[in-house]
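A reminder before we start the practical. When you read a complex entry, don't treat the lines as separate problems. The point of joint prediction is that each chain is placed relative to the others, so the output describes one connected object in space. Small molecules and nucleic acid strands, if listed, are placed in the same frame. In the example below there are two entries. Take a minute to note the order of the lines before looking further.
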Amino acid sequence: MKFIIQRDRLVQSVQDVMKAVTSRTTIPILTGIKITAAAEGVTLTGSDSDISIESFIPKEEAGDEIVEIKQPGAIVLPAKFFSEIVKKLPTDSVEIEILGSLQTVIRSGKSEFNLNGLDAEEYPHLPQIEENNKFHIATDLLKAMIRQTHFAVSTSETRPILTGVNWKIENGDLSCIATDSHRLALRKAKIETEMNESYNIVIPGKSLNELSKIIDDTNELIDIVITENQILFKAKHLLFFSRLLEGNYPDTSRLIPSESKTEITVNTKEFLQAIDRASLLAREGRNNVVKFSTITDNIIEVSSNTPEVGKVVEEIQSQSIEGEELKISFSAKYMMDALKALEGTDIKVSFTGAMRPFVIRPLHDETILQLILPVRTY
Amino acid sequence: MKFIIQRDRLVQSVQDVMKAVTSRTTIPILTGIKITAAAEGVTLTGSDSDISIESFIPKEEAGDEIVEIKQPGAIVLPAKFFSEIVKKLPTDSVEIEILGSLQTVIRSGKSEFNLNGLDAEEYPHLPQIEENNKFHIATDLLKAMIRQTHFAVSTSETRPILTGVNWKIENGDLSCIATDSHRLALRKAKIETEMNESYNIVIPGKSLNELSKIIDDTNELIDIVITENQILFKAKHLLFFSRLLEGNYPDTSRLIPSESKTEITVNTKEFLQAIDRASLLAREGRNNVVKFSTITDNIIEVSSNTPEVGKVVEEIQSQSIEGEELKISFSAKYMMDALKALEGTDIKVSFTGAMRPFVIRPLHDETILQLILPVRTY
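Here is the predicted structure of the whole assembly.
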């Protein structure tokens, strides 16, 4: 194997596939990045066996030569060292060559690295995925859907299925749902597809988080293919595989109340900042709980009291308070997470009593909702 | 106590005095910030008993009213909460008032905090310092002198005196010296003074580091007063006290070789980057050592070899190599620290053999030098 490549393109691809590489693996070859040079270009692969990422650097693009392949071949290089090396190389072009069997030379200007490689034949094969049933979604929409749901997955392994995000596809609708059983995030969107099949899968929250870090915020379409135990995201020059979680995701539809007894409308940012301040003194406590109550004249009071430190009272002017008076307590962290996930300047919060879950929605957007279970303190 | 103050000025002063506050103190009142409101303005104080910082906010500045004092007084508020609160307050102006004995209210817009304060009478008094003997130095020069020396102090408590920077003042010259016994940093400057006394003191490295974070990069003069066991830095509206380390600092002057057998001149940045790359594979090893050797045609080779990972060879074109051929090994970290501390595009390295300390200087600047002890490997 021997090729000359533009350093910046190499650095970018290495950074992308590094998202799948972990040093905490029991399979030594997975601490490496697989590099394959073929006639069409260079392919880099990283994997932790849950997530696998393949990044392709074409021989040329828009008339520019990016890679000059001198001899095809493949090698696995230690990911940590290789990624640090390429970032710090002195010149814009890098030559990579296998000498002998696994000794790999990286040359750039007057800098020459010799790395001990591993046999590329021993690198695990990526899943073979039939692409009969695929659908498409705009990359920036996918990123938004991930951002608006994945934070609500459970971080505890008590119920492993809740560490994933539930994706349901039916009749051209995609619903993404995450819950840790104390709060729930739901986001829906239309997708482009010719398939009739419906799916109900659970994608590890960590996989979606890594994916959203490496896809660009563009409106280009990304292809998605689902198999029995894998999901594949195909962007330009990028393949992202994730295993799916096994097991049945709980039916969350009955959790979402269909009616409400108190509804408030309030500016998102003002509400978020008031909750943030009200929770400042409560963070010491075990659960970071704030109290919320409606007052006359459309005023909302958010407060917390930590006797050893002090207390806070925040008044927020809401656009409207409809229905019954209410006093309720909830986790300030969950509320702030939910408010940050919503778009739009104003939100509506619908309560059905102090002991029932309540729902937060943007004012004019039915595609997203956040649900929070209150805490018993009043 | 009651006053109304501009939030931004309060936030800035709180951030400054917070540099002296630690949560790991055995004296509970030192986890707080002391706030004193008097006719002239508001004074904030933070201290960990080694460092004390006092920041003054004047009643008015350049015709602008900054503080409106309604009633003088003093209180100590929990530093961690108070600093987080002021940063997040909603309006540009903040009212602070003591209710009853120690209950303190912080009001801003519709936000109201009640904090449990501590009695300001119990806050330790800052050292009383006679200002007979003081000298002045430009703030940006002081910052540079700290940056160029303090990194070389020892982090080990085996010889506590080496955790400080040795300041020697004599005949209008200030020398700052730091060494951890493996390397040494020295910086000299002229100071403005009318005093005849000479001083030889040791300032904790940590104190200088915190000081350099809060003083601005201006050419305004900063006053410095030295007493038996304290040093005081006086900038505009800011007092910074540090205790001095007790004990005698070793005489370092005889460590610095006066002659050399090999001298090289090289571009600072190119040399730094080559050392950085050469050390990439060596970082795994215990001591991060690189090999340096002179080759013909003014070429320098820097290399390292970690058999289990691989090896690196870097060639650097120097402006000149004078004197004997040389092979020497040294810590890449110490060399990079030294090169980052120097100013100027080119440096001169003067060696007196593979086993002797060597000296790095900017090409045309006699006020600064860095010294490194080699490592025995060749």
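Discuss with your neighbour: The interface with chain B takes residues 78, 81, 84-85, 88-90, 110-116, 273-274, 276-277, 280-281, 308-317 of chain A (CB under 8 Å). What might explain this?
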